[in-house]
């Protein structure tokens, strides 16, 4: 959240359920890679059914 605030980014629903962890390093947190999502904006689709 501090990183986002430093860049003036506002996420309307920042919660653990909206964070995808792609890369996690115990010893070097600078190497962590996460992506923020908002699954509340998803819609049902019949494209892949």
TrEMBL record:
One of the record's GO cellular component terms: plasma membrane
InterPro entries cross-referenced by the UniProt entry: Kinase-like_dom_sf, Prot_kinase_dom, RTK, Ser-Thr/Tyr_kinase_cat_dom, Tyr_kinase_AS
Sequence ranges assigned to domain Protein kinase in this UniProt record: 1-49
GO molecular function, one term: ATP binding
The organism's place on the tree of life at top rank: Eukaryota
Gene Ontology biological process: cell surface receptor protein tyrosine kinase signaling pathway
Protein name: Protein kinase domain-containing protein
The species this protein was found in: Rotaria magnacalcarata
């Amino acid at each position: 959240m501090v990183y986002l605030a430093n860049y003036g980014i506002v996420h309307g629903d920042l919660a653990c359920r909206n964070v995808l962890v792609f890369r996690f390093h115990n010893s070097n947190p600078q190497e962590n890679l996460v992506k923020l999502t908002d699954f509340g904006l998803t819609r049902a689709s019949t494209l892949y059914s």
